[in-house]
Amino acid sequence: ASADEAIRAASQKHPTKPGRVFKYGTAGFRMNSDLLDGVTFRVGLLAGLRSRKLNGQTIGVMITASHNKPVDNGVKIVDPMGEMLEQDWEVYATRLVNCPDDDALIEYYHELATTLKINLATPGKVIYARDTRPSGHTLAIAVADALAATGIEAVDYKILTTPQLHYLTRCTNTEGTPLAYGKVSEVGYYEKLSDAFVRALRGRPITGKLVVDCANGVGGPKLHEFLKYLPKDKLSFNVRVVNDDVLRPEILNLDCGADFVKTKQRAPPSPQPQPGVRSCSFDGDADRLIYYWIDPHSGFFMLDGDRISSLAASFIADLVRAAGLEEELCIGVVQTAYANGASTNYIKQHLRLPVVCTPTGVKHLHHAANRFDVGVYFEANGHGTVLFSADAIQTFKTKEPRSPAQKEALDTLAAVSDLINQTVGDALSDMLLVEVVLAHKVWSLSDWALTYKDLPNRLVRVEVADKDVFQTTDAERRLSQPAGIQEEIDQCVKKYTNARSFARASGTENACRVYAEAATRVEADELAMQVARLLS
Ligand code: NG1
Ligand code: ZN
Question: Mutate which of 84, 264, 285, 360 to test ligand 1's pocket (most atoms within 8 Å of Cβ)?
Fold first, then answer.
């Protein structure tokens, strides 16, 4: 049919490289950008199918490789409410992308339509955007060509942060409904955050300077833009935006950004860190956030995703209590096995909140967080957010306060639920949340750091012949395969006090990771090395 010829003609402009196998992983498809043209075209086809399957609801496509090298890029699909693509469809994406030629591609496209009962005459809509990588422009054309070839309505949002594209996807699908999430524009995003930030502060001042390292990625220009929407006396005076050069693509994520700070456990060397100054870093697509400062006496100190999580949970739990809602709303915290054990203890024992552990990857945390009325989730690397149920938000906005203190708490909760991006982790939104909480508590970063003391820990990457032989259970905390290996790990762990260690195959790299924590740095290092040796 002519529809198939349209796909074939477009596909010929965007061939895949033969002899490679691609997999839709934790972050979609991600690799050297030279390999991505055909992959991205096919992801465009699948996004159109998904929109048609969901009766024309808008699907998002984001082109980014986050904290990875400038020569890499990636592409992933965003579901209608701004969530990550449903897991069954990851398999379809993988199969579609790996079709060996155009005949196989067209055949599998129709097979999907048939087995999933997709009417190809249904209108569909896809919105897409990219980060600042130079390869993003041609990859966006691949998406556009796929959508044009299959008659899908398309909106190109050009350059955005990943969380902005998630926001716009949700806004597009909820516009004019009781679930409306905000104005369907980049400006609407800034206005919503700015308004919520001012309401959440409730007149409290932001004190001291805040240096924001944007990894020379898309967060830089977007943060500058956002600051224009803030009233002049709020934050904009305090913020200094650094590493915001997106005109030299080769310096993206280079010796800066949230991933650098978290993995190297030090501040970006440039600009020269000033002791005592409150600082934070975004990653290359502005969905991760890490805070830190250089203490004049003890040196570098980092406040990672676990800290942001416990800070947000403690603040929100206090407000829920002050609003008289503690019987009504269940608050919970979701972590992965990489969360520092001291943070888990602090949340369980001090904050008295339930903690759930899920496998690595935001989609797992997100789903677990959805089961609470207020679900706080963060990966240790600084990617996370807080999810409020529709009922919780309704309660904040409609409950009759019995005292001025209750009113204050309810209004703050309503503002905070607007401030926090409900679709996905968002560095800008999370940073504003942290600033609000610190302003309310009148805390410096060192006050925040005093809440608990991290257990010394060590993360090592282990090259193995075949990472797929390492199968896990219990939210990745134990190995079920190869047989017997977990017992050996247990023996190692037993030799240390307060120790914990686990090994798993990475979902994003061709390697295994070993994590260990123990009472002292030396012991954590030793334990990690011993467990690593068991794998290789
Ligand atoms: P893998 O490679 O599966 O460990 C890494 C991070 C995750 C997550 C994903 C996607 C660690 C230990 N793992 O996953 O937290 O962010 O990348 O970016 O940091
Ligand atoms: Zn990212």
Answer: 360
Residue 425 lies in a domain: yes
Residue 451 token pair: 């809440």
367-404 per-position pLDDT tens digit: 999 999 999 999 999 999 999 999 999 999 999 999 99
Q: Total structural domains in the chain?
A: 4
Atom of ligand 1 nearest to the CA of 26: 10
Instruction: Give 286 Cα–ligand 2 centroid separation in angstroms.
Output: 6
CATH number of the domain that residue 474 is part of = 3.30.310.50
Q: Compute the distance between CA of residue 182 and CA of residue 419 in angstroms, rounded to an integer.
A: 12
How sure is the predictor about 419, in pLDDT bands with cuts at 50, 70 and 90?
A: very high
SS3 512: strand
Residue 172 has pLDDT above 90, yes or no: yes
Atom of ligand 1 nearest to the CA of 381: 19
| Residue 9, domain extent | 2-159
ipTM over 0.90: yes
Residue 35: strand, helix, or coil: helix
Are residues 110 and 7 part of one domain? yes
DSSP-assigned beta bridge partners for residue 332: 375
Nearest-angstrom CA–CA distance, 255 and 257: 7
User: Would 167 be classed as within a structural domain?
Assistant: no
For residue 454, the CA-to-ligand 2 centroid distance in Å is 24
Claim to verify: residue 290 and residue 316 sit in the same structural domain: no
- Look at ligand 1, atom 11, and give the residue with the nearest C-alpha: 381
Whether 101 is in a domain gets the answer yes
CATH number of the domain to which 141 belongs: 3.40.120.10
Residues serving a catalytic function are 66
